[in-house]
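Researcher: Last one for today. Full complex below.
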Amino acid sequence: MMLTRRLSLALFALPFAAAAQTEEALRTAIRDAVGDKPTTDGGITLRVPALAENGGQVPLGIVVESPMTAQDYVTAIHVFATRNPTPGIASFRLTPMLARAEVQTRIRLAEDQRLIVLAETSTGRVLRASAELRVGAGGCLS
Amino acid sequence: MSTLPSQPRIRIPRSARAGEVIEIRTLIEHPMETGLRQEAGRALPRDMLTRLLVRLNGETLLSADFQNGTATNPYHVFFVRMEKPSHFEFIWTDEKGRQARAEARVAVT
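Model: Here's the assembly. Have a good evening.
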């Protein structure tokens, strides 16, 4: 009885322990990227499929509203996964020589999850956007 | 500096009108193996690109730092307004410091 209860407790606790670790890793990754600066929602358009059949090659388009002048431009775009084995996807460093604050790439996602994108501007702002994606076949461990 | 066996591919117009915005597409063949995957019970060794640097006429235009979530055969698209004849350099570096390079010139008419 005791053993059974311990086993069921362990089985119950395991997924939550794993989720807590992901949350902590995500917070650390975001802090490493932009520090503790406050973020503002909006100003970023994310182009992703609602359902990614192949989690190994998920197209991602990011467009940040910015004049991209020497005085006011997007300096960096950071992309995070909330439910991959590790949260980091990529960080892009931009310059005003780019015509617009737009990057397209392909990413891998392990399972259904939310994608978080942060954009830093030369004026000191941090913009934030997120998107929910469903993933057919996971693209990280298979 | 040793060279990566990876084959980069760049899609960029050969010429553009002054003021025109051009699209640049880059792709490099690379497994982007994170070290987290297993095959037949053994972990596949980590083999990751860490960075793409793009220079325009010798100045940094864009760089990308890759983490585990960047897909196999990294693919990137970005946009540049052409004002003068331009020389683009593309340099990928892996975690062992090996590099792959490509370059392109765009005439402005």
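Helices of chain A lie at 2-34. Chain A touches chain B at residues 56-58, 79-81, 84-95, 97-100, 102-109, 139-142 (CB under 8 Å).
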